[in-house]
Structure prediction request, 475 residues.
Amino acid sequence: MKKIRSTFLIVQAILLVFCCFLPSGCGGSEKEKNEKHSSVVFAMDTVMEITVYGDEEVLKKAEELIRDLERKFSVTLEESDISRLNATGNTRVSEETYALLKRGKEICERTEGALDLTVYPVVHAWGFTTGEHRVPSEKEIQKLLENVDFRRIALGENMLVTVPSGVMTDLGSVAKGYTGDRLMELFKDSGVTSALINLGGNVQALGTKPDGSLWKVAVADPKGGEEYAGVVTMEGKAVITSGAYERFFEENGHVYHHIIDTSTGCPAESGFVSVTVVGDEGTLCDGLSTSLFAMGPEKAFEFWKNSDDFEAVFITSDEKIFVTEGIADAFTPLGRFQKKETEVIRRD
Amino acid sequence: MIKTKTWIMIFAAMLLIFGAVSFWSFTRPSKGTVANIYVNGECVRSVDLSLVTESFEFTVETSAGTNVIQVEPGRIRVKEADCPDQVCVHAGWIADSANPVVCLPHRLVIRLEKNGKSADGPDAVSK
Prediction:
């Protein structure tokens, strides 16, 4: 009897010792003040990773917010504000959709139409919305371009939005940026002081890491793979990249990527392979990353010189990196880009 | 008398085990990198990559399809999948916490998480 009991005790002791060494796996339980909580949300046709420090409850609210905005902005969900607008040309929309249409139009205006919320039919003709890629004829593109003009989105009283028939609106170029801004607001209101989100490659942070150090955000290598082109250190900023490498297809030896030049209706052959915009406002960074890419180096650098609300890292087709002076010290090239030239753009 | 002996034995056993486990965990080149596999946002399996000594495979069944995951010391990848785009398979091995493997059609994510506070790599990748 004694022997049995002592064996039992030994087994218990062994178990106790082993428990102390269990690695933190699924739902690990470190009880720290600044405990890290993460979640993964599949929404807006991409994967979203959310990390907050401290308050775990806010993750659920974050997911609800994302789902809610997706239901309002989606071009594919039939009952969304945007689908209703595209189907009827005249509808009342939610406050969020109205606010984003308004902010989106301002960015379109500022980029002189390099960003255009009504380019959707052209992107659709190239098959980038469905994956059924094709090269449309010149005639077809010209016909579609007649209906590309963000100025025709009329924002009226009481959330009423009107567009002429034939014009189609899509918030895809700014929706993830706006979602990032709204998540940052939610975190702040919930008392969170440290958070990092990655909405399908759109990175945005609240504050610094819990230990006060800066976030390190890598800029993807336009050639893909495990390498990075460089790393940006920052606090409380959005870091949003548009690259020709994200979505593309090949036909008769020519590569067609998804960033459409709104003046030609064709994939932008601008001389850039990637543009990363860093700033306080996700919506602006999102809209500008696409439009600066389409503008090409000369216009994009000039655009930055006339602005004071963002910084950028540009990678050209010949793999040269240009970084604006405001983040020149915060940017470090990595891998094969260490051996290449990095030029700092200054305001003179 | 027997009781005291038993207690000494228990104490000795605990000490021995504690020593062995400590030795084993300290001599390992462990940075405590854990690969968490998420389906639809829920963590379904964890593998401590620093404790892996031999390559092994396992299959994750999701409502949309299956992914065969291969683990080697310090790294992990999706070896095969019946998803249409094969993006997860082409992503290859990962050993970096900032860049997860994603299978969008199956809503599967493999992410590396470090137990320690200081991770050398970037916190996220902008792309």
Summary: Chain A is about 35% helix and 25% strand. Confidence is low (pLDDT under 50) at residues 19-24 of chain A. Chain A touches chain B through 48 residues (CB under 8 Å). The longest helix of chain A spans residues 2-19.
